[in-house]
Amino acid sequence: MDGWKRFPGLLREDLKSKLGFVAASWYVLGMFCLLFSMKKAVPAGEIRSFYVGAGNTSFFLSAILFGVIMGAGAFRFLYVQSKADLYFGIPFTRSQLFTAGILNNFFIFSVPLVLCRFLFFKISLSMGYCEYEDNIFCVWMGCLVLIVGFLFVMNLSMLAFFLAQNTGYRIGLLALLMLGPDAGIRLSEKMLEALSPSFYRSEFLDLLKRYVPPLSLLENAAGVKEYVDGVNWKAGDHLSYLLVMIGGTGILLCINLVIFNIRPVERKSGMFTFRFVEHLVRYSCGILAALWFTGGLKVFSAGGNPVVVMVISLVMGVPVIHGLLNMVIAFDAKKFFTGKWNLLAEFLVMAVVLGGFLFWGKMGSQIPKERETVSMAIALTDLGSGDDSSQVLENMCLTGEELSRAYDWLGLITGYEGNSAPLVEERTYEALVKYELQNGRTKYFKYRFPGSGLEGFGEVFDQEGFKRGTYEAFRMDSLKYYEVRWTNGLESYTLDLDEEERRDFLKAYQQDLEELTFEEVCRQIPVGRLTFASTKNQGDVSGLLYPGYDKTLTYLSQLNINTDKKVSDYELTQIVVEKYMSTEGFLYDVRYLESQKTITDQIKMTEMSLNLFPEELWIDRLQDHVGRDMEYFVTYRDSAGKTVKKVKCLALGKE
After folding, report:
1. Whole-angstrom distance, CA of residue 636 vs CA of residue 491
2. Which residues are registered as beta bridge partners of 485?
3. What is the DSSP letter of 372?
4. Closest Cα partner for 144 from 209, 58, 207, 238?
5. Which of 227, 295, 465, 480 gives a 20 to 30 Å CA spacing to 112?
6. In whole angstroms, what is the distance from residue 14 CA to residue 347 CA?
7. Any bridge partners for residue 626, and if so which?
8. Spatial distance between the Cα atoms of 655 and 651, rounded to a whole number of angstroms
9. Mean pLDDT score of the chain, rounded to an integer?
């Protein structure tokens, strides 16, 4: 009881030892406000209310930086024997010493953070970046998220410095705690990809990737990658991450308190405070190294039997990993061949881990039955005119008859139902498939198939569900805050249309897109490209123009745009022809320039240009009648004949 009465004095003494942290926190966070207040106006194209919410990058990085430094320096007396004896000899319990250090660190960071954040907010209001009613909630949540994130990182840093007895090993252990989970998940994905050619994504690993790695958890809670550091920050989207981070902070705080209470004052032999930490580091690093080694060996084996690869990995890799870990943990090269019982245990652990991945990969490669599937999404990676493949899988929903047609096509490209082995041919394509199952699970697959598999894809492509999921222009319903731009790869214009005209133009384009066939995509080269450019930072939407788009091309011709104009219709001044050679390598293909020549003869240029088209329009890499080894750099004059331009072109017909 007397100790708690004297506790304020302990707080003051601990604070005196951390005046450097106090000065650094006020200086760094205050400089953010100063630099921001020096802005004269909102930069062109910058999102308003960009600075006041949880995802502000500068404050986010400061929370991580101060968390690491202040966690490492929270109890500096532990690192010097004489100071540790002195502190543990004063009439305070270890719990009181721990509480004083944690409270001071909390206030040293949180007080200047909250004050500077609200000063930041006041400056934003005065500059017109945001409005009070819209953003005050985001300011409070920004403070909460960053303070919790600071405490989370601080406790991780503190844990690493409690458990290791050497500065280098403390930093290494902190790196393992901060980066190890993310590395383990990514190596697991690589392993599954190596073991199963049809592996694309794992719902379970995606979940772990969002919640387990410390930096990813903090990023998702703050919304840094989504740029939701203003009024767009939604509590519902980030609350689960924040709750997990609060729970993790509480658990780490309890662990640190227990370790602080039982940590011996005297330095022990070895690099770690407790024996179990050495085993934890050994097996964690060993598993990461084994996954990396096995995955790399599988790549070099060029499709070898996975069981054989794993046996070789165990026999060759585990002893080497064991020896290296002996040297690192003991900091002695002579220890390479020691620890035979550890070696045996590592063999058993690695065998179980690798065997588990083999079983996981085998079970995960089984294609769901149609009766078990609620909906499906398919993305052709070479269909570049559509959305990004991940967006396609999220937006598409094939059900009923559309689902049956998709299953029929998948049965074709896999050879027979239930077989996901890729077929081998000169030119292969890739399809990503997402299955929504009746049990609520989601499964992802990746299929590689030869060009003959494209012949039956038209039945899937023609379905409204496929086009609506693939082409964002098909899902647009308003162009109020957009402008329409046209290009044929050689010239470009912004169309002078009012809102009603833009709406009519979009309807015409959507009707043409609805009538588009997969045969046209594979056999025809686009004659132009449209861009629906947002004027409110909502993201641009692009779409190709094919020769059969009668409604859209007619609309453009009424605006005096010559959509029929090709490369050969311009005044050409020079064509540089480059020929490339491709060599198939073991790990990757090599492409190098074989020859180059310049053509200025007008007759030759006119004849050559008849088969040329701008590379900018070759977005759907499905056409097999495009020369891939020849590139043409065409210099020409625009329609006015006054400006010389240069464009990279490709030619129809295989070279």
Report:
1. 11
2. 494, 531
3. G
4. 238
5. 227
6. 48
7. 652
8. 9
9. 84
- Sheet containing 428-437: give its strands across: 373-380, 428-437, 442-450
Helix (H, G, I), strand (E, B) or coil at 648: strand
CB atoms within 10 A of CB 107: 14
Could you tell me which residues come within 8 angstroms of residue 420 by beta carbon, excluding any fewer than 6 positions away? 196, 197, 198, 365, 367, 414, 445, 447
Q: Which of 558, 497, 503, 562 is nearest to 527 (CA)?
A: 562
445 beta partners: 199, 433
* Distance between CA atoms of residues 231 and 208, nearest Å: 28
| CA atoms of 520 and 308, how far apart (whole Å) | 46
Q: Look up residue 14 and give its two tokens.
A: 């601990």
C-beta of residue 145 within 8 angstroms of C-beta of residue 60? no
- For 272-283, the pLDDT digits (tens) are 888 888 888 888
Report the distance separating Cα 199 and Cα 191, nearest Å.
Answer: 10
What is the sign of the dihedral through the CA atoms of 501, 504, 510 and 515? negative
In angstroms, the first-to-last Cα distance of the chain is: 90
Task: Tell which residue, 260, 264, 285, 286, has the closest CA to residue 275.
Answer: 264
Rounded-to-integer distance, Cα 647 and Cα 376, Å = 40
Q: In the numeric block, which tokens belong to residue 219?
A: 């990023």
Q: Report which residue type is found at 477.
A: D
C-alpha to C-alpha distances, 513 to 386, 396, 469, 576, 587, nearest whole angstrom: 12, 16, 13, 35, 39
Q: According to the 3-state scheme, what is the secondary structure of 328-344?
A: HHHCCHHHHHCCHHHHH
Per-residue pLDDT reduced to its tens digit, 243-299: 999 999 999 999 999 999 998 877 777 788 888 888 888 888 888 888 888 877 776
- CB-neighbour burial class of residue 536 (10 A; exposed 0-12, middle 13-18, buried 19+): exposed
Q: Are 278 and 272 in contact (CB under 8 A)?
A: yes
Higher pLDDT, residue 188 or 227: 188
Phi, psi (rounded to 5 degrees) for 185: -65, -45
* Those residues with Cβ within 8 angstroms of residue 636's Cβ, 6 or more apart along the chain or in another chain: 490, 567, 570, 571, 572, 573, 644, 645, 646, 647
Identify the residue whose tokens are 């750099």: 633
Residues 6+ apart with CB under 8 A from 500: none
Distances (CA, A) of 81 to 264, 267, 500: 11, 8, 79
Nearest 5°: the CA angle 404, 405, 406 is: 90
Q: What percent of the chain has pLDDT over 70?
A: 89
Could you tell me the sign of the dihedral formed by the alpha carbons of 191, 195, 197, 202, in that order? Answer: negative
As beta bridge partners, residue 579 has: 595, 630
Asked if 250 contacts 157 with a C-beta cutoff of 8 angstroms, the reply is: no
Residue with tokens 């030619």: 651
Of the candidates 565, 497, 491, 560, the residue with the CA atom closest to the CA atom of residue 527: 565
